[in-house]
Specification:
114 residues; 6 helices; 0% strand; globular
């Protein structure tokens, strides 16, 4: 694959990401009362997470052993997308999607205590 073709594909991917975000915002405006509790699928689009990033974050949740400072440090080490606000939003999305809800609630409670 040549550089021109790779660049064209990259531009197409960026366009699709933009349209996904735009569509989610439009749906959010139309269904505002229902968008207060985003699912993990919606959160993935909003935060532009890749499958490996989601898998790494899921593993971080599974490995949580009560040390929220270590959790925060490990999450921030996963890349620029994992800010405190993003992490809290993702944890809430996991809870709403009923994925690792108990662990996520425990982590969010630890955030509130610190």
């Amino acid at each position: 694959m040549g550089d021109d073709e790779a660049e064209r594909l990259h531009q197409e991917i960026e366009k699709l990401k933009f349209h996904n975000r735009t569509l989610l915002v439009l749906l959010g405006n139309l269904l505002e009362e229902k968008m207060q509790e985003p699912t993990i699928h919606e959160a993935i689009v909003v935060h532009d997470l890749s499958k490996p990033e989601l898998q790494a974050f899921t593993q971080l949740i599974r490995d949580y052993e009560g040390d929220v400072k270590a959790f925060q440090q490990q999450a921030s080490g996963m890349g620029h997308k994992f800010t405190g606000l993003t992490v809290k939003g993702l944890l809430q999305a996991f809870i709403e999607s009923e994925i690792l809800a108990g662990k996520c609630e425990e982590i969010l409670q630890s955030y509130e205590m610190n």
